From TrEMBL:
EC class: oxidoreductase
NCBIfam families: PDH_E1_alph_y
Keywords, ordered alphabetically: Oxidoreductase, Pyruvate, Thiamine pyrophosphate
Upper classification of the organism: Eukaryota, Fungi, Dikarya, Ascomycota, Pezizomycotina
Domain of life: Eukaryota
Enzyme Commission number(s) of this protein: 1.2.4.1
Organism of provenance: Drechslerella stenobrocha 248
Listed GO biological process terms: pseudohyphal growth; pyruvate decarboxylation to acetyl-CoA
CDD domains named in the record: TPP_E1_PDC_ADC_BCADC (cd02000)
Reactions this protein catalyses: N(6)-[(R)-lipoyl]-L-lysyl-[protein] + pyruvate + H(+) = N(6)-[(R)-S(8)-acetyldihydrolipoyl]-L-lysyl-[protein] + CO2
Any one Gene Ontology molecular-function term assigned to this protein's record: pyruvate dehydrogenase (acetyl-transferring) activity
UniProt-recorded name of the protein: Pyruvate dehydrogenase E1 component subunit alpha
Length: 410
């Protein structure tokens, strides 16, 4: 009788606690602020380099010496970083609106709050370096050269989409960008394969194979780690740790939440992913390391998403609104760089207003063009045309029945 009562009491307690939003914030040895930079003399020439020192808690290294906190930048680079992050956010906000208007259907994962990772990474590498990521991919597609129109058109299922309207939110591709992948963790071994191709071809390029903290426990991730280390593949395994895998806090799903240490025999680096300059410095250092024959790295970008895991997730059932508001107010990547550039007199309020006006005008125009673009024709040729690389198709391909056989060459 007592045992039965105890079980009922325990179950009642569990049900009660499961309904309460979790407010546990895992310990982070690296800051997610971008307010502690120290700057030297800022020259008048917008293309002249000047020195910046990142704050002491920017990096945490594992079995390796961390990058220098000293770096160089220019006024024009800082302005471009601000504009790019503002553009990604405006584009994602447009996707949010279109989804709520039911013009975008299906899965849709937005990166509002995480813009510094995609922008900082792109500023550190060349167009010939490779990136592959999971399904929160719109910002990376944009930074790899995709237009806002092509990205929004893809979300809308239009013919002028970046994947011709066939991929949707999770499958976007551009030169040296391998997606956008919908299966949790599956892109990591593919990224290792892309990096192996770089080594095999003798190219001095690195590959960033990105995944989230929710995918970090996948077995295929560790298989990729092992092969990459065995063959000294020039790959950076990058975990975007936004604290929640879907609706589960990292410390509830992972026995070790310091994801940069997960490689064991692979050196690691934890990076402030809310600081675009820290991301750039870390990625430039990672490229140099991996392309110099030293093998792979594991990196962890500490970041935060303001919205839910996807558009179907309100994002407030497993965390408090106060937590979200705190990150928005105190650690926002875009507002942080804006504040610093004003403080250093790199830009004025009027210049920021002009960039914001231009971003709004450009993004809104391309979004409108995407909305008015045509849907794909409802024909068999459109359906089958992208199964093979253009020009490599066989004579025919089988459909569901013999009558649906499609002939490429008629």
């Amino acid at each position: 009788m007592l045992a039965s009562q105890s079980r009922r009491a325990a179950l009642a307690s569990l049900r009660s606690s499961s309904r309460k939003p979790l407010t546990v914030v895992p310990l982070r040895t690296v800051t997610t602020e971008a307010a502690g930079w120290k700057v030297g003399n800022v020259p008048a020439d917008p293309d002249a380099k000047f020195n910046i020192k990142l704050q002491d808690e920017t990096f945490d290294a594992y079995n390796i010496e961390p990058p220098s906190l000293e770096m160089q930048t220019t006024k024009n680079e800082l302005k471009a970083m601000y504009k790019d992050m503002a553009s990604v956010r405006r584009m994602e906000m447009a996707a949010d609106r279109l989804y709520k208007e039911r013009k975008i259907r299906g899965f849709c994962h937005l990166s509002i709050g995480q813009e510094a990772v995609a922008v900082g990474m792109e500023k550190a590498i060349t167009p010939d370096d490779q990136i592959i990521t999971a399904y929160r991919c719109h910002g990376f597609a944009y930074m790899r050269g995709g237009s806002v129109k092509s990205i929004i058109a893809e979300l809308l299922g239009r013919r002028e989409g970046i994947a011709y309207g066939k991929g949707g939110s999770m499958h976007m591709f551009a030169k040296s960008f391998y997606g956008g992948n919908g299966i949790v963790g599956a892109q990591v071994p593919v990224g290792a394969g892309v990096a192996f191709a770089m080594k095999y071809l003798g190219r001095k390029n690195t590959t960033f194979a990105l995944y989230g903290d929710g995918a970090a426990n996948q077995g295929q991730v560790f298989e990729a780690f092992n092969m990459a280390k065995l063959w000294d593949i020039p790959v950076v395994f990058g975990c975007e740790n936004n604290k929640y895998g879907m609706g589960t806090a990292a410390n509830r799903s992972s026995a070790l939440t310091e994801y940069h240490k997960r490689g064991q025999y692979i050196p690691g680096l934890k990076v402030n992913g809310m600081d675009v300059l820290a991301v750039k410095a870390a990625c430039a250092w990672a490229k140099e390391y991996t392309t110099s024959g030293k093998g792979p790295l594991v990196m962890e970008f500490l970041t935060y998403r303001y919205g839910g895991h996807s558009m179907s997730d309100p994002g407030t059932t497993y965390r408090t609104r106060e937590e979200i508001s705190w990150f928005r107010t105190n650690q926002d990547a875009i507002q942080s760089i804006r504040n610093r550039l004003l403080e250093w007199q790199v830009m004025t309020e009027d210049e920021f207003r002009e960039i914001d006006r231009q971003v709004k005008e450009d993004i809104d125009r391309e979004v409108a063009e995407a909305e008015s673009s045509p849907v794909p024709d409802n024909t068999a040729r459109i359906l089958y045309e992208d199964i093979y690389t253009r020009g490599s198709e066989p004579d025919w391909i089988r459909g569901r029945t013999a009558e649906e056989t499609f002939y490429y060459k008629e």
